Amino acid sequence: MGKALDGVRILDFTHVQSGPTCTQLLAWFGADVIKVERPGVGDATRGQLRDIPDVDSLYFTMLNHNKRSLTLNSKNETGKQLLTRLIEECDVMVENFAPGAIDRMGFPWEKIQEINPRMIYASVKGFGPGPYADCKVYENVAQCAGGSASTTGMLGEVPMVTGAQIGDSGTGLHLAFGIVTALYHREQSGRGQRVTCAMQDGVLNLCRVKLRDQQRLGHGPLKEYSQFGEGIPFGEATPRAGNDSGGGQPGRILKCKGWETDPDAYTYFITQAAVWKNICDVIGKPEWKEDPEYATPDARLPHLNEVFGAIEDWTMTKSKFEVMEICNPLNIPVGPILSMKEIAEEPSLRETGTIVEVDHPERGKYLSVGNPVKLSDSPSDVVRSPLLGEHTDEVLRDVLGLSDDEIAKAREEGAV
Ligand code: COA
Predict the structure, then answer these.
(1) What is the C-alpha separation between 221 and 382, in angstroms, rounded?
(2) Contact 171, 114 (CB under 8 A)
(3) Which helix (H) or strand (E) holds 308?
(4) Where are the alpha helices (DSSP H) in 217-289?
């Protein structure tokens, strides 16, 4: 069975995290992703956060599976000619350089379109057009500018960034969606187009419920927020809501057995209205089922601290997995706080290919996250990341049809 994106060739000028996340996804689905890197230098992440001296870091290897690596100096004259030929041969070009870098190389969108009108040219930038368009941006800048940090953390404490890389990997996901959409459109139009995604916009898209709450604030307090029950007045902007659920069903993180010594002995517990009676039974508060102070979701809102306090008295007598085993059959939505160690060791994630063990010629075996999107007719396998320039000759020969002599000449001229 072929892969879903077999036959799609991608010129991958991405580096660090946001762009590589995007092209890795496309590579998993079968696209031929040719990662272009500066000769002798490569993607900076190859050398960042190294755990083994002189070996590509996990930062790099875990974001660049299933790709080929071509070294090419795009500021060298011969390099520019090769790049022009590659633009002719590829379907998609992806980059996440700082604003203006591609133009300074001499390949603005207008020129790319001229070389190959079917080319889909996709970019990640920190900000869209506007006052910050020229700024360089990393993950946490995007989390802050996209509304995530101001709405994350505990009330009254500093804004908080989240471990989920919503600015980088989140924007990479958005960009991959844009590229596949443009490929579909090209089927009808015969033309490529420009796809852009700003990290600020990507983060904001993921934070849309907080903009929802910003507007609800104009019509009164946000009653499902814990601070409402605690009598703390709301200000002008959506506040930080700790571990409140963010949806219409109140939820919190609660201690479980062993929390005193195990930093991850916690569960998320959602008091879904539909199963309130089951919750009352399981925590030993059957009287709350009919008590008008507790029986309905609206009545409970001012008492959430008391309600969750009673639930926590119960969860503290159970491990986080026992809470799950007891609550699931009763349809009560709960979730254990899993550490990365527990996730790495979880057999079911290995079975589905969500966690995979990969073998690398220089670092040996390591764990990675496989494709989280499963297609029934186009399964993904995870192929180790390429060494710097591992496929330079192969790409120049097979994609551009260069002879061995021509490749040697390009190398002498410092183009590859
Ligand atoms: N051949 C020749 N030159 C190359 C090259 C190649 N193959 N690949 C890169 N370069 C050059 C670029 O042309 C640029 O040169 P210039 O500034 O002289 O024009 C230079 O390398 C550095 O590129 P840049 O993107 O500015 O890297 P940086 O390390 O200074 O900045 C970021 C890194 C991530 C901050 C920046 O790329 C950025 O803001 N990107 C957009 C937002 C983004 O994706 N951020 C998240 C990253 S996870």
Answers:
(1) 48
(2) no
(3) helix 304-315
(4) 226-229, 276-282
**Residue with CA at minimum distance from ligand 1 atom 20:** 101
Q: What is the pLDDT of residues 103-152, one digit of tens each?
A: 999 999 999 999 999 999 999 999 999 999 999 999 999 999 999 999 99
- CA-proximal residue: ligand 1, atom 44 (nearest): 96
CA distance 71 to 74: 9
Instruction: At 89, list the tokens.
Output: 């041969």
Q: Identify the sign of the CA torsion 128, 132, 134, 140.
A: negative
- Ligand 1 atom closest to Cα of 135? 39
Residue 21 CA to residue 111 CA, distance in Å, equals 26
Which protein residues are within 6 Å of ligand 1, measured from CB? 16-19, 36-38, 72-75, 96-98, 101, 104-105, 124-126, 136-138, 168
User: Taking Cα atoms as reference points, which of 263, 133, 257, 267 lies closest to residue 198?
Assistant: 133
CA distances from 346 to 101, 264, 267, 415 (A): 43, 15, 17, 46
Is the pLDDT at 245 greater than 90, yes or no?
A: no
Distances in Å between the Cα of 407 and the Cα atoms of 41, 74, 88, 386 are 19, 16, 18, 20
Confidence at residue 234, expressed as pLDDT on a 0 to 100 scale: 97
CA distance 386 to 64: 8
Q: How far apart are CA 214 and CA 271, in angstroms?
A: 24
The single residue listed with the structure tokens 């008008």 is 292
Residues recognised as catalytic: 168
**Residue 372 and residue 21 in contact, taking contact as beta carbons nearer than 8 Å:** no
Cα distance between residue 134 and residue 198, in whole Å = 12
Of the residues 83, 97, 138, which should be mutated to test ligand 1's pocket, given the most ligand atoms within 8 Å of the CB?
A: 97
Cα-based angle 69, 74, 76 (whole degrees, multiple of 5) = 125
- Tokens coding 332: 């009560």
- Identify any residues that bridge with 367 across adjacent strands, giving them in sequence order: 357
- Give me the mean pLDDT over the 41-63 stretch: 97
Residue type, position 253, single letter: I
